[in-house]
Each structure stands twice: as C-alpha cells, then as structure tokens.
C-alpha cells in the first residue's frame, strides 16, 4: 500500500516540484545563488526555526501516548540544534544570535510558521505532522539531490558546501526518516478516507509556503 506521505506528495506533485526545484535550490547547488540572498534566507530561517520548534512543541502536548510524546520532544530538540548551523554561518559574517534575533520576521516567515502552528492547534497530531513534513522531509530530499549533483562540493570552494553537507548528512537524514515513520504510525491509527482531503490541503499549503520561503530569500523580500 502507498504510504500516506507518498500519496500526499503524488497528489501535490506540481507544488512539490516547485518547492524542491525552486531557482533558489538550483543556485545553492551550482553555487550561483547571490550571497546576499543566502544571508537574507539564513537569518529568516533562524527566526523560522524558533517558531517551527514551537510548532513541534504542540506535538508534545497533542501526543496520544508517552512514546509519541518522547518522539515529539526529540523533534523539538533536533530543530533547536539545527540553529547551530545558522549561528556558525552567521558568525562568519559578524552576526551573533542577538543580532539575528533582532531582525524583523519577513511575511513569508510569519505566514509559514503561523500556518503550521495553527494547523496543529486546531487539529490532532496527524494534522500537525502532515503540516511539518514538507520541511524536514523536503530538506532531506534537497540535501541528497544537491550533494549528488553539486560540482566542486568535495573541495571547499563551493560557497554553500556547509549547508548542503548539513542536510545531506546522516544526522539530518535520520531525523527525516523518523518523521516519515511517525506519519505512517499515526496514519495507521488516525487516517480515514473522510479526512484525507483536509490533510492534503494542509500538506499542499505547507509545500507552497516552503516555495514562497525560497522566493523571499531570492528577492530579499521583507
Ligand atoms: C523554511 C525551512 N524549511 C525546512 C527546514 C528544514 O528544517 C528549514 N530549516 N527551513
């Protein structure tokens, strides 16, 4: 049987392609992305991760049992740990945590984080994890694709090597695999055909908001 995640991805195929093959992603891969766009994106992504961790934390509250509660808590930890990459890269540009946190959130950042928080508050844990899945699973897919394609990644001349290595790396791939397991586990207990269209709508919107996040970085939008 098709997994819930594969079904969602197939039913939102055009939106998924627009996300994982966005021009920003192409620029990351071949190194042609303007440094200014990457910096704007990364500062916003730091702000994103703080609010995204808050969305994950809703999963701790919504967990139907202790095992799911522990998994959700580990998810919060993993998202918060991801900010270390951002702090390392930002330190190279003379930006510390206080400076990044003082930056105003862009509308794309607010739209995406508030959308997933609200989907989780309104629904159950399955609604929440479906809304969170394009993030972790998508970046794992993008990281793997870029690492296999990117020229010059082996030497350190590639301007975005650290970013690509982080998301292609074993630790991040393991987090994405956990996330997929969690969706399928919850689907077994809570998925009905009647609620599938609503889950697809949450998924589709989250994927669109991911593409808009890249677009915000590319165009330096506030
Ligand atoms: C916008 C966005 N989506 C996904 C991830 C992966 O955690 C991230 N860091 N930022």
TrEMBL record:
Pathway: Cofactor biosynthesis; thiamine diphosphate biosynthesis. NCBIfam families: salvage_TenA (TIGR04306). Keywords: Hydrolase, Thiamine biosynthesis. It catalyses: thiamine + H2O = 5-(2-hydroxyethyl)-4-methylthiazole + 4-amino-5-hydroxymethyl-2-methylpyrimidine + H(+); 4-amino-5-aminomethyl-2-methylpyrimidine + H2O = 4-amino-5-hydroxymethyl-2-methylpyrimidine + NH4(+). Its EC number is 3.5.99.2. One of its GO terms (molecular function) is thiaminase activity. Pfam families: TENA_THI-4. This is Aminopyrimidine aminohydrolase. Belongs to the TenA family. GO terms for cellular component: cytosol. Residues 12-218 form the Thiaminase-2/PQQC domain. The keyword Hydrolase applies. Catalyzes an amino-pyrimidine hydrolysis reaction at the C5' of the pyrimidine moiety of thiamine compounds, a reaction that is part of a thiamine salvage pathway. GO terms for biological process: thiamine biosynthetic process; thiamine diphosphate biosynthetic process. The keyword Flavoprotein does not apply.
């Amino acid at each position: 049987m098709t997994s819930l995640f594969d079904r969602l991805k197939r039913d939102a195929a055009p939106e998924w392609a627009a996300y994982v093959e966005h021009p920003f992603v192409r620029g990351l891969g071949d190194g042609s992305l303007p440094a200014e766009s990457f910096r704007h994106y990364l500062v916003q992504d730091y702000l994103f991760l703080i609010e995204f961790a808050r969305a994950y934390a809703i999963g701790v509250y919504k967990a139907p049992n202790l095992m799911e509660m522990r998994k959700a808590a580990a998810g919060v930890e993993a998202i918060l740990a991801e900010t270390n990459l951002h702090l390392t890269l930002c330190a190279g540009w003379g930006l510390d945590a206080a400076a990044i946190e003082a930056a105003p959130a862009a509308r794309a950042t607010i739209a995406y984080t508030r959308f997933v928080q609200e989907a989780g508050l309104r629904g159950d844990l399955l609604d929440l994890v479906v809304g969170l899945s394009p993030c972790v699973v998508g970046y794992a897919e993008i990281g793997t694709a870029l690492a296999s394609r990117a020229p010059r990644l082996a030497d350190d001349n590639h301007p975005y090597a650290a970013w690509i290595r982080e998301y292609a790396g074993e630790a991040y791939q393991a987090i994405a695999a956990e996330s997929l397991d969690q969706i399928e586990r919850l689907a077994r207990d809570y998925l009905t055909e009647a609620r599938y269209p609503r889950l697809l709508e949450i998924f589709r919107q989250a994927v669109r908001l991911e593409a808009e996040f890249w677009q915000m970085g590319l165009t330096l939008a506030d």
